[in-house]
Amino acid sequence: MAQAASKKTTKPAVKAKAIKPGRKPAASKATKVVKTAVPVKKPTAVKAPVMSKDELRVQLEKAQKTIVTLRTKSREAVKAAKTSAAQIAELEATVAQMEKKVAGQVKPAKQAAAAAKPVVKKRGRKAAATGDVVPDESDDLAPVADETAGEE
What distance in Å separates the CA atoms of residue 53 and residue 61, rounded to the nearest whole number? Predict the structure, then answer.
């Protein structure tokens, strides 16, 4: 066992690929130019300009005024949104009522048309047995005198 552990296998060195006959050798890869790293300059701490208490008070008042105006604009926008939403709801309700009215007006017209529709005559033995009169079709097939006079 000691002998087996001491034996080490080594892989043969990788040979360069042989070029097949009739082929051109591959173009050598262009080497990249590596630039030396430029040291990054750390930004120096910028000190805030020293302001007096009066200047700071003026800035504070100005900021407070803008906050107040923004709040009032926000309130007005919310109020306008609520009123427009209410108007939309009212308009949707009126549209629904009008659609119901139109649907109600269309139905009676359809029923009247169905009532005016002629009754379909029965065909076959049952119709002849009940005594229904079948119109004579020979009148429909006879040419009218006006049509035959125009053709000659």
Answer: 12
